[in-house]
């Protein structure tokens, strides 16, 4: 895949995450009825200011990496490709399992009082965007793996 295609994939995932961050912020500060409730955006007990700050940092990382991809530049050292790829795959697997367990729990497939009824498993909106971030991590690793070794 070309540098511009990796950059386009990263941009699309980054814009999806930006929509999540913006949607949660708008709901928090102005409370529009057409958006999910503030509680639906929250998948943890992390205070909103800390969560928002972390999300902005993640967006800056995504933007920086996307611009580096577009320019055909490395985004991290070659020795980090395998650990980052494994992290992305593990992250994706855990978040997919979280989503499936929550859906099965909501459907009653795991019993009425199952662990799947907990907020962490039923926070579908945050989980979906964790899937987006996991895919972004995997795009970073795939891009870096595609780079010629002499350019690192």
Write up what this structure looks like.
With about 150 residues, this protein is an all-alpha fold. It is built from 6 helices and no strands. The chain has one domain (about 5-150). The mean pLDDT is about 90.
Low-confidence stretches: none
Question: What number of structural domains do the residues give?
Answer: 1
What structural class do you assign from the helix and strand content? mainly alpha
Identify the quaternary structure here.
single chain
Give the tally of β-strands. Answer: 0
Sketch the topology as an H/E string, one letter per element.
HHHHHH
Strand content: under 5%
- In DSSP terms, counting alpha (H) and pi (I) runs of 4 or more, how many helices? 6
Provide the descriptors you would attach to this structure in a database record.
single chain, 152 residues, mainly alpha, 0% strand
Q: What is shown here, in short?
A:
With 152 residues, the chain is an all-alpha fold. The protein has one domain (3-151). The chain has 6 helices and no strands.
């Amino acid at each position: 895949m070309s540098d511009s295609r990796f950059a386009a994939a990263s941009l699309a995932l980054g814009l999806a995450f930006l929509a999540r961050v913006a949607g949660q912020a708008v709901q928090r500060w102005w409370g529009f009825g057409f958006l999910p409730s503030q509680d639906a955006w929250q998948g943890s007990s992390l205070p909103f200011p800390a969560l928002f700050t972390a999300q902005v940092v993640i967006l800056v990382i995504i933007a920086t990496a996307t611009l580096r991809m577009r320019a055909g530049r490395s985004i991290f050292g070659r020795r980090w490709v395998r650990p980052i790829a494994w992290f992305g795959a593990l992250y994706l697997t855990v978040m997919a399992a979280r989503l499936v367990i929550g859906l099965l729990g909501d459907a009653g497939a795991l019993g009425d009082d199952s662990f799947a009824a907990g907020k962490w498993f039923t926070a579908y909106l945050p989980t979906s965007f964790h899937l987006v971030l996991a895919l972004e991590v995997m795009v970073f690793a795939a891009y870096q793996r595609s780079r010629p070794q002499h350019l690192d």
